[in-house]
Amino acid sequence: MTARAAVILAAGQGTRMKSPIPKILHRVGGRTLLDRVIDTVLETGCERVVVVVGTHSPEVRRLVEARLSAGAVAVQDPPLGTGHAVLAAGSALADFDGDVMVVNGDCPLLQPEDLDPLFSLRAAGTDLALLGFRPTDALLYGRILSGPGGEVLRIVEARDASQEELVVRDCYAGMLCADRARLFGWLSRVTNANAKGEYYLTDAVAIAASEGGRVRAHYAPESAVMGADTPAQLAQAEAVFQQRRRTHFLSEGVVMPAPDTVHFSWDTRIEAGVQVEPYVVFAPGVSIATGAVIRAFSHLEGAKVGPGALIGPYARLRPGADIGEEVHIGNFVEVKKVRLDRGAKANHLSYLGDGTVGAGANIGAGTIFCNYDGFDKYETHVGPGAFIGSNTAIVAPRSIGAGAMTGSGSVIVRDVPDDALAVARGEQSNKAGWAATFRARKSAEKAARKGKAGP
Predict the structure, then answer these.
(1) What is the C-alpha to C-alpha distance for residues 213 and 236, in angstroms, rounded to an integer?
(2) In sequence order, which ranges of 17-134 are alpha helices (DSSP H)?
(3) Would you give the distance in Å from CA 15 to the centre of its chain?
(4) Is 348 a residue of the active site?
(5) pTM value?
(6) What are phi and psi of 230, to 5 degrees?
(7) Closest among 182, 206, 181 to 194, alpha carbons compared
(8) How far is the C-alpha of 344 from the C-alpha of 326, rounded, in Å?
(9) Could you tell me if 160 and 143 are in contact, meaning their C-beta atoms sit under 8 angstroms apart?
(10) Which DSSP letter does residue 17 get?
(11) What is the pLDDT of residues 46-76, one digit of tens each?
C-alpha cells in the first residue's frame, strides 16, 4: 500500500468564534476540534501528520508538539491563503514518498470512512482526489465543475461563479489528496492574482486538470464536513455528535428512556445492559460496566463504574472515582479519587475525597472525608464492613478499621481500630425548663415592644 501522510490546516485565526480560546481548541464531545481531526487522520493509516499553525496561537503549537512531536509543526507566517498554508508543510514532508491528504482542522465530525475514499481514488488511478459534498443550501461554497465523464475541471468560488455555475450542487469541502511531489509541484505554480492577493489551494485543481491530470471527487455527507467557525456552528456540531453517540449506544444494548437528554464524551465506554436515566452527563474518561444503573441528573467524569452499581440520582463522580460491583452512590453524593469495593454504600449527602472504602461498608448521610488542609491532599481509608454514622467528619489522613463504627456527629481525628466504636462530640447536657422560660421571656419582650409602638 502507498504510504500515507496528512497535512492539517489549523492556522486560521477563528475571529468569528469571538473567543480568547483559539477556534481549533474549542471542544466537541469533550475533545478539541484539532484532536478530533488528528484522531481521524491517524485512523486512516497516515504515518506522518503535519499540522500547519499560525504564530498567533502558541497554545495550538503546544498541543501539536505534545500530541505528535515538534517535527509535526509547520508555521504559516504570514497567512497568505490555503495554498500557501499547505506549502508551509513542504519542508516537513520533503523526504516523504507517498500520498498526502490535506484536511481542515476545524471539521470535528469527520470520520475515517469519509476520508478513506480519497486514498481509494488515488489507488484507482486518480491523480488528484477531492472531497466534496452536496449541501442543502450551497450558499457561498465553492462549486466543483466537472466534465461529461465526471472528471473535475476546476473549482469556482461562489463569488466568482456565473448564474449557471451557481446552480451546481456539487461543492468543495476544502480537502484533497495527491502524490506529494505532484501536489507541491502544482501548488508552486499557484499565483495570488486575485482580489484577496492570496494563494488558493483550489487553484491547484485547474492546474492539475490543464496538465492532463485525472481529477475526481468523492462526496461525503454534509454533516461529515461541517465546520465550526462560530459558537452556533459549534453547538450544531455538538448536536450531531451527541445524536451519533446516542444511536451507537442504543444499538449496543444501552437502555435510555430519554436518550435526547443524555450527553456523552468522545471516549465514553458503556457496556450492554446498562440503564441510563434522563439528564445524565458523561464527561471524558468514563466507563460503565454491565448491569449498572445511572439515575437521573448525575454527572460523571474520569470515573469507573463496576457491574451492578447504582449511581444517583443527582450524584457526582469526579476523576479517580472507582465504583466497585454492586456499590450504591446515592443522591447528592460526590466522590473524587476514591475506590469503593463491592457492596459499599454512600446513599445520601456526602463528600468522599481521596481514599478507599472497603467492601460492605456503609457511609452515613452527611459524611465528609476532610482531605485538604489548604496545601496538600490526604487520604481516608474505611475498612470493610465499617459503619460511618451520619454527619461524621473524618479528618485525613485517617484509617477506620474493618467493622468499626463512628457515632453520628463525630469529628474523627485519630485512627479507629477494627471493630471499635469512635465517638468524638461534645457531651450533651439537658437544662430542665429552660426552653419554656426562654419562650416566656421572648414573648414578654415582643409584647412590650408592641405596646410601645401604640395603636
Answers:
(1) 37
(2) 33-43, 58-67, 82-88, 112-123
(3) 22
(4) yes
(5) 0.91
(6) -135, 165
(7) 206
(8) 8
(9) no
(10) G
(11) 999 999 999 999 999 999 999 999 999 999 9
